[in-house]
Amino acid sequence: MRDAAPQTVYLEDYTPFGFIVEAVDLTFRLHPTATRVLSRIRFLPNPEASDRTFFLHGEDLRLIRAAIDGREITPELSEAGLRADVPDAPFTFEAEVEISPATNTALEGLYMSSGMYCTQCEAEGFRKITYYPDRPDVMAPFEVRIEGDQPVMLSNGNPGARGADFAEWTDPWPKPAYLFALVAGDLVAHRDSFTTASGRKVDLAIWVRPGDEGKCAFGMEALKKSMRWDEEVYGREYDLDVFNIVAVDDFNMGAMENKGLNIFNSSCVLASPETSTDGNFERIEAIIAHEYFHNWTGNRITCRDWFQLCLKEGLTVHRDSEFTSDMRSAPVKRISDVIDLRARQFPEDQGPLSHPVRPESFQEINNFYTATVYEKGAEVIGMLKRLVDDDAYHRALDLYFERHDGDAATIEDWLKVFEDTTGRDLSQFKRWYSQSGTPRLHVREEYEGDTFTLHFRQETPPTPGQPDKGPQVLPIAVGLLNPNGDEVTPTQILEMTQAEQSFTFEGLRVRPIPSILRGFSAPVMLDHAEGKDRRAFLLAHDSDAFNRWEAGRELARESLVQTVLTGAASDAAYLDGLKAVIRDESLDPAYRALMLGQPTQSELAGLLYERGETPDPEAIHDAAEGLRDAKAAAFAGLLPGLYEDNQVPGPYSPDAQSAGRRALANAALSLLSRRDHGAQAQAQYDRAGNMTEQLSALSALIDAGKGDLALGRFYDQWQGDRLVIDKWFALQVMLAAPEETAAVAERLTQHPDFDMTNPNRFRAVFGALAGNHAGFHYRDGAAYRLLAEWLMKLDPLNPQTTARMCTAFQTWKRYDADRQDMIRAQLERIAALDGLSGDTSEMIGRILA
Ligand code: 0A1
Ligand code: ZN
């Protein structure tokens, strides 16, 4: 059955639900195609609500029976739910419904993955399980009984009675329905325990399919580290007797923070040295932390409505970034986060899908789990912390937990704790939540007498629905260097609040060199006409690790843009400066590896568009390749040593130091193989003892045109390991030559292991297709057509993943008229599809608008 017709929901229309839910009692009788769900829900009239309409959400349910206070009723049913007349006094509502998990391909509600029952209820999936007020501000304790013959049957909270064919669970903490979870299947546990600061012993388990138990140890360590960290840094303890994590193969997103029963996409929890890269390990650690941290920021304090999504997501991303910075290298984490922000959030905020961190309307909330809500939401919290300082930040958070524990809160509540803690007025700062778009920050310098002045001007271009913007509060971290490279003024935060504002520094006898926006202190685009010499100077001397990297990045960008526009050779000054950095052994190898990287082709396309040029994907591709060749040539003498010196002997360990050395060695390998035709890469492939080395060797071989044999061997070796085979699919598309990319992707869709119903596999092929910039935008338009075709096939099965992948088209207005015409034709073709889901239709509508 189709989703109910989409309707636009507005933040300003919020009203509380007419009833309070005092207690929820659920019984599940499991059956693949006919699961029965029996509910008993105790309702009280809500004295704070004026509207007492009794409407319960419910979709795709077969109602067997409903009763109020034991008397059967015949409620009014619609596609969206159930309405009934109810007493003006406390009452018990009961219902029995039937659902079919085995045919649920949308992976929302109760579904089956590899024979296992599992659920995904955020944001509005619970309504596909039973009739309920499926809104985050309705919180209640849940009692759950699962009946069935599955060896393992889990739900939220603490375990209760268990028999041969049933299991009971009690979750004492009131929660919204989106945090409900149930898992049942043939699972095995990797177990451990954790004792909280106040002495509560918590049983920990990671549940996986038999055969995967060897891939849990790393996730378990990450969980224990997260639990300790949240106690030490935020004073937050865990609050149940058990904490369960389950790995499932079919999952639309990364993972889900259900109370006491986190459900993970298996790609985000299973790890082993042989099958996972260093990048996988780091990401798994961060996602385990993220979901765990939600226990306080999301679960104990949840969101009043879905417009407040950033309240839990921005804060939890901020917290998991802090955690990773503490566990690993803070500058490396910051640089990686900014690379990611520029790759995913900036294009979103500069195109047709731009929306505020707190949106004001939506049709389908699933379409708002975006880089803006998550990553820009986290940036906003980082700015707040910078403005009030670390100490005040933690006092404000203590107050937040004390004041709002058990609440469904709002951004207003969140800002108020900062105002009350610091006495600041945050009304202008609040624009970060309501104004969309990336602010542009222009800087001009002036030096007179011994006074140095920075003149700033900020503007934010119009975005959909927001033609005019007010100035935002920008914390601009600035330090000053003198011409011999010493820091004369250490980092200070300039707080910009006006459209134009100047800041002076006095007593400077020589003209200083400013280092502006240190640590990327605000998510803006900085326009500073510095010139190459200045950037080369900062690349050599900046004491701020982020800005030192950024100086190199700026030089790389400019070099690439000049190659694209004028055919100029790669900038020699950049190559010289970079060489000095990468040979500097006092610098962290992970940092040097980041220095060796270069802006993505998509970022360059955005930059050219921003400058009023029409990006030519093929020219950009050639320039990017040219810069890599130039590096390989300029560093030819250095690379073999860099490669050898950073080999990590002994058994594999995923720690940050070892990973950093491997990253540097593999960056060197990828340049080396441009000159030795893959000889070194082949040697590494043949002896590789872990996936990081194996996959980077394979990439280098493919790049050198020598990948075919190794790709075949790789497949034979890993056939049957679905997560590794995802890498095999993705790599071939990602590294295909522009003119062949669509054909490679199409050929892979014919492979027996291609399974469109598995989101990881679908994304492996089509995420890689969209990520291969020159291939996706190849002039024949084949990739546009192929993606559109597959999105149309996937939509009836899985609207959420389809809608998410439509973002591949969000930057279409950057390109020339021919490409725009071809993309528009594909978007219109999707839009015209009979029975198109509300999710996809909203996305296509916004992209085309
Ligand atoms: N809250 C989860 C993300 C998530 C959101 C929606 C989902 O299904 C529609 C699944 C997971 C997180 O932030 O990790
Ligand atoms: Zn989250």
UniProtKB/TrEMBL annotation:
Family: Belongs to the peptidase M1 family.
Protein name: Aminopeptidase N
GO aspect biological process, one term: proteolysis
Superkingdom: Bacteria
Record-level Gene Ontology MF annotations: alanyl aminopeptidase activity; metallopeptidase activity; zinc ion binding
Domain Peptidase M1 alanyl aminopeptidase C-terminal, residue spans: 533-849
Keyword annotations from UniProtKB, A to Z: Aminopeptidase, Hydrolase, Metal-binding, Metalloprotease, Protease, Zinc
TM annotation in the entry: none
Domain Peptidase M1 alanyl aminopeptidase Ig-like fold: 437-528
Residue ranges of every copy of the Peptidase M1 membrane alanine aminopeptidase domain listed in the record: 218-432
Highest classification ranks of the organism: Bacteria, Pseudomonadati, Pseudomonadota, Alphaproteobacteria, Rhodobacterales
NCBIfam families: pepN_proteo
Enzyme Commission number, as recorded: 3.4.11.2
Residues covered by the Aminopeptidase N-like N-terminal domain: 97-179
Cofactor (UniProt): Zn(2+)
Organism: Salinihabitans flavidus
